[in-house]
From TrEMBL:
PROSITE patterns: HIS_KIN, PAC, PAS, RESPONSE_REGULATORY. The keyword RNA-binding does not apply. Coiled coil: none annotated. It is an enzyme of class 2 (transferase). It comes from the Bacteria. Keywords: ATP-binding, Cell cycle, Kinase, Membrane, Nucleotide-binding, Phosphoprotein, Transferase, Two-component regulatory system. Its EC number is 2.7.13.3. This is histidine kinase. Transmembrane segments: none annotated. It comes from Leptospira bouyouniensis. The lineage of its organism: Bacteria, Pseudomonadati, Spirochaetota, Spirochaetia, Leptospirales. The modification 4-aspartylphosphate is found at D582. Residues 7-53, 133-203 form the PAS domain. It is found in: Membrane. NCBIfam families: sensory_box (TIGR00229).
């Protein structure tokens, strides 16, 4: 301790600057006092520095000129303050904020120098990082690729970047202090207020929404806005940071895409409507062609005449198959094909499918076989029409492309974990096979192995495409294996409920099927005299249906109506035993007429059978929804008509 320094002054300094380094030197800057804070900051112990020069110990980074200037300031003002770089004992650099003044003795004579040094190295590092961060933010803010602004709690611009100015076409001066809604599209002006109020209540502090603005050139801009509420340390709201992303081009593209989609949907709907209308228009005359030929077949014909009539019926059914394929592919492409799953007899489906193609196989002298499987479930829940269609398509193709040998259908089943049964179908032929180069195209629409004028096999090229789409809809799959000139095997798999696990809401349908298969007896209809109303606007179709009915029920009393309004009136007056109702009629259609009839208590139980050229499940569903009991598709199958007549008009029912 320097004994020339008054004790009370020394003690006062120590207390006042306890956390700062207090360094005392003589007039030659030799260290005479070094407090504990100095030891902590510089790393030297007191005994290491006493008597040594501050220049040697502190290694202050300053030029001789700067040092001379500091001493000059000290001499002139009696004190010097500033920031300098000094070093620790380990060589690390320190930034020091220093206050230096002369020390005087009791006699007023200058006896030394006292320096109070504070280590601001960390503080300076933080300050520099903050400055750098602030500069980075400023640069990012100003040069961001999207618009960025600060809005006060009232929605007024506090700060805007260059992108927003460019986007809206206004200068910073024109924007600052004005509400952002002043530049918004009229219908969107209050959107910010809604989100602001929600954010101030603590909800949706960070939100993204779309809003329209009007530029200075009156252009409508679609802006995707991201709002973030900034709060102070106490949680009080300060301002909003808002990002403006110009999505005008994207919105325009979306609008064009939406319009294109609507146009495509309209075109697709027009195509579907056209196909449906053409189907209806073609089915109507086909109803006459097939129906009258089937009636002709029941008359006295010689062998040649019967052959001619059978060929005419076969050709008409071929045309009907093409119409059905085109209608199916149209519905598949429009995504409107739906399944109608009911309790169905699998053996009957197989029998029907093979029966349709048996004559063609015999004609070509081909063996058409079914490998019987006694473990096969009899009653399953499936769309029987579509499963039959799949089988006929695949077996029909096998027969078509096989010139000699056989076509074999094999079905196996296994129970799955979800209490369903997995049915595996195999259709194997000894036909011409499929070239490997055709494998990728086999399930495409309108594709055929032969497309030139000399092709041997006909067809539309839709069968396999429809088959695969139906299996996709049923949750199944299909595969094939083929060797050219040796044959092909198609395999497909579906899962379905068996009768034990099925929903018995289809019990009525099941009973109807059993009724048809087990009890049909047309002779029971010969003596009944039911009253039957035929509501059909087409004169030829009415005449055909009358002749078909009289073929089975010669004593039937038939009434005719050519529109729905007349059908309602006659149904009310005659109380018939059965009504055949055409769906499409002028004035009042069959659906509306049925709805009215079902509301009248006296006629509420009359069986009504729909007649329609539409073959879609959706149309059938509409008929059942209004209260119709059954459904016959034109061209009307004479056996199907027989089944309907027996079901509703057999003596037991009439009694």
């Amino acid at each position: 301790m320097d004994h020339n320094l008054p004790k009370e002054v020394y003690s006062s300094l120590i207390l006042q600057y306890l956390y700062d380094a207090v360094i005392v030197t003589d007039l030659q800057f030799q260290i005479t006092s070094w407090n504990l804070a100095a030891e902590r900051i510089y790393g030297y112990k007191l005994e290491e520095v006493i008597g040594k020069s501050t220049k040697e110990i502190l290694k202050t980074s300053a030029s001789e000129e700067a040092r001379a200037k500091s001493i000059a300031d000290l001499n002139t003002n009696g004190i010097w303050q500033g920031e300098v770089f000094q070093h620790r004992k380990d060589g690390s650099k320190l930034r020091i904020r220093s206050a230096v003044s002369y020390l005087k003795g009791n006699d007023g004579v200058t006896i030394g120098v006292i320096a109070i040094n504070r280590d601001i190295t960390e503080e300076n590092r933080i300050r520099e990082e903050f400055a750098e961060s602030e500069e980075r933010f400023r640069m990012s803010f100003e040069n961001a690729g999207i618009g960025v602004c600060l809005l006060d709690l009232e929605g007024k611009f506090l700060k805007v970047n260059k992108k927003i100015q460019s986007m809206l076409g206004y200068t910073e001066t024109e924007l600052i202090g004005r509400p952002s809604k002043d530049f918004a599209y009229k219908e969107d002006q209050n959107i910010f207020d809604q989100y602001r109020d929600s954010a101030l209540k603590g909800k949706d502090v960070d939100v993204v929404y779309e809003k329209r603005y009007i530029s200075k050139t009156n252009q409508i801009l679609w802006i995707e806005i991201s709002n973030s509420l900034v709060k102070d340390r106490k949680g009080s709201p300060l301002y909003f940071v808002v990002h403006f992303n110009d999505i005008t081009d994207r919105k325009n593209a979306e609008f064009h895409l939406l319009n294109a989609k609507k146009e495509a949907e309209r075109a697709n709907q027009a195509k579907s409507d056209f196909v449906a209308n053409m189907s209806h228009e073609i089915r109507t005359p086909l109803n006459g062609v097939i129906g009258f030929n089937e009636l002709l077949l029941t008359t006295n014909l010689d062998a040649d005449q019967k052959e001619f009539v059978k060929n005419a019926i076969s050709s008409a059914h071929g045309l009907l198959g093409i119409i059905n394929d085109i209608l199916d592919i149209s519905k598949i492409e429009a995504g409107k094909l739906v399944l109608n799953e009911t309790v169905s007899n699998l053996k009957h489906i197989i029998k029907d499918s093979l029966g349709v193609l048996q004559w063609k196989a015999k004609e070509k002298n081909i063996q058409l076989e079914f490998e019987e499987n006694h473990d096969l479930q009899e009653w399953i829940v499936v769309d029987s029409t579509r499963l039959r269609q799949i089988l006929i398509n695949l077996i029909g193709n096998a027969v078509k492309f096989t010139e000699k040998g056989s076509v074999v259908l094999k079905i196996t089943s296994e129970l799955t974990e979800n209490e369903k049964v997995k049915l595996s179908f195999s259709i194997k032929d000894t036909g011409i096979g499929i070239p490997e180069s055709h494998n990728a195209n086999i399930f495409q629409s309108f594709w055929q192995g032969e497309s030139n004028s000399t092709r041997r096999y006909g067809g539309t090229g839709l069968g396999l495409r429809i088959t695969k789409s139906l299996l996709d809809l049923m949750g199944g799959n299909i595969e094939f294996f083929s060797e050219e000139s040796k044959g092909t095997e198609f395999r497909f798999y579906i899962e379905c409920l068996t009768l034990e696990n099925a929903n018995h809401s289809n019990e009525e349908n099941e009973n109807f099927q059993k009724d048809i298969w087990e009890n049909i007896n047309q002779y029971k209809l010969l003596d009944v005299t039911p009253k039957i109303l035929i509501a059909e606007d087409n004169l030829m179709n009415r005449d055909l249906l009358k002749r078909m009915i009289l073929k089975y029920i010669p004593k039937a009393i038939l009434y005719e109506a050519d529109n729905g309004l007349e059908a309602v009136k006659m149904g009310r007056e005659l109380n018939p035993n059965l009504i055949f109702m055409d769906v499409q009629m002028p004035g009042m259609d069959g659906l509306e007429a049925t709805t009215i009839i079902r509301t009248e208590k006296s006629n509420g139980q009359i069986p009504i059978v729909a007649l329609t050229a539409g073959a879609l499940y959706e149309e059938r569903k509409k008929c059942f929804d209004v209260g119709m009991d059954h459904f016959l598709t034109k061209p009307i199958d004479i056996l199907a008509l027989n089944q309907v007549l027996f079901h509703y008009l057999n003596p037991v029912k009439l009694d």
